[in-house]
Amino acid sequence: MAEQVKWYEKAGPNGDVVCSTRVRLARNLARYPFPDRASLQQKEEIKEKAREALLSGNSILSKEFRFLPLEDLDQQAAVSLVERHIVSPGFISRRQGKGVLISEDESVSIMINEEDHLRIQVLREGLSLQEAAETADRIDTLLSESLSFAFDPEFGYLTQCPTNLGTGMRASFMLHLPALQESGSMGRIASNLSKLGLALRGTYGEGTQVAGALYQLSNQITLGLSENEAIGNLSAIAGQLIEEERRLRGQMGKGLALQDKVARAAGVLKSARVLSSGEFMELLSYVRFGVAAGLLEGVGQEELNALSVHVQPATLMAAQGGELPEAQRDVLRAQMARRVCGKLREASE
C-alpha cells in the first residue's frame, strides 16, 4: 500500500502566503490534577484513558490513528515531531508519562500530558481555518463521549494556564511574509497585533526564531469570546496581512535587486553540494517568493512545502535511520534540494 500523502506535502487556499492553518483545543480531565501537579501514576492513567477513548473499537477514528509513548522515542524521532509541527518544542522534554496520538496523514495530533492533559491539534494546508475548527470540534465531541472534561459554567473549560480558560482554543496561521520582512515592517506589525489580542511569533511558536520568513500568527484571547468570534477575528487580520504582503510583492518583484536574489537562490538550490539548514531556509524563502510572484516555474508550492520539512535535521536523520554528523546532513540536504529545485526555470524561458 502506498504511503499516505502528508498534510505538509500539499498546498492549500492562499498557499502563496498561508503555508498552513492550525487549531488547538486544550482540555483537562475532571478529578485529576493539572499535569504540573499530577503524579506519574496519574499521568499514566490519563494517558491510557485518552488512548482508549480514541483507539477503542467503538471509535469511528480508531483505524486512522497510531499511539506513540514519548519515552519510547529516541532524540531524533522526538525532535522530528517538532519539526513536522506534530508536537510543541516543550512537549518532548521530560517525556515520562507523555504520549501522542497521530493520524495517518499527520494532520491531527493529540498531545497527552503537555501543559494540559490533552492538546487536540488539527493542521491543514493553506488558509483552512473553518475546516480545521470543524475537525477539532468533531474530535473533541468524540472524546467527550467517554471522557469527562473539567468545565465551569462561568469560566468555561478549565486549563492549567489562565490565558487558555474559556474555549481553550488557539488558532494560528503559518505565514510566509518575505516582502513585509524585507520592508522592515514586522516589528511594528507585531506590536499592533498584540494590542488586538493576537501574537506574531517565530516559526515553531513561542520563544522560537523566525526561519525563512515564516511567522506564526495566533489568537491570544480565549475567555469571553466564542470560537466563531475568535476565528472571525483571526481570519480578518490574516486577510489584511495577505493583502499587504501581496501588494509589496508586486512592487518588489518588479525590482532588479529582488529578481537577482530570487535567481541566485534558485541557482544555488539547483546546484549546491553542501547546504546548512539555515542557509537552505533563507534560499527557499526567495524561491517561494519567486514561484508565487511568477518569476519562477517548474516547481509547485506543494513540492516546496514538502521539501522544507523533509530536509530538517532530525527529520532527515530519522529518514536515514540513525545519527548523522552535521557535514553529512548538509550534503544530503543539498542532494534533496537539487532533486526538487533542479526543475526550476525562469518564467520567461
Entry keywords:
349 residues; alpha+beta; Creatine Kinase, Chain A, domain 2; 2 domains; eight-stranded antiparallel sheet; two-stranded antiparallel sheet
Proportion in β-strands: 15-25%
Number of helices: 11
**Name given to the CATH architecture of the largest domain:** 2-Layer Sandwich
Q: Would you identify the CATH H-level superfamily of the largest domain?
A: Glutamine synthetase/guanido kinase, catalytic domain
**Order of strands across the main sheet:** 2-3-4-5-1-8-10-9
User: What is the typical, i.e. mean, pLDDT?
Assistant: 92
Count of beta strands: 12
How many domains, in number, for the residues?
2
Q: Roughly how many Å apart are the termini?
A: 39 Å
Largest sheet, in brief, is: 8 strands, antiparallel
Structural class: alpha+beta
Tell me, briefly, the overall form: globular
Give the H and E element order: EHEHEEEHEEEHHEEHHHEHHHE
User: What's the CATH first level of the largest domain?
Assistant: Alpha Beta
What does this structure look like?
By secondary structure, the protein is of the alpha+beta class. It folds into two domains: 7-247, Creatine Kinase, Chain A, domain 2 (2-Layer Sandwich); 256-344, no CATH class. The protein is 42% helix and 17% strand. It is globular.
